[in-house]
Specification:
alpha+beta, 3 strands, 120 residues, elongated
Amino acid sequence: MASIQKRGKKHAVVYTYTDQEGQKRQKWETFNTKAEARKRKSAVEADLDNGTFIPPNTTTVEDFLKEFVELYGEKKWGLSIYASNTAMINNYINPLIGNLVVQDINKRTVDKYIVVWQIK
């Protein structure tokens, strides 16, 4: 399922997954220590076995929010809430983190966003 390859002083976890189009892809993730690589290897294998593995994806925050508003907002929100939420997305979220890939966002990214937003 997954293997660990030594690359110089670093270790890489190599695994194969099926992307959104149904094609098999190979992914290499590099870590500084073998212990980190082992931990990631077991997490990937557990996710693949359980069927909970989420394949890498290049969807940006802006694309995700646009799709979310189309699927959920247009059907569930009233007119004033729809206008308010889309304005907040377009004026506050997209200019700061709209171009980031959703899977790259973590707690630190959100903390930076909150600090920048509070300064404005």
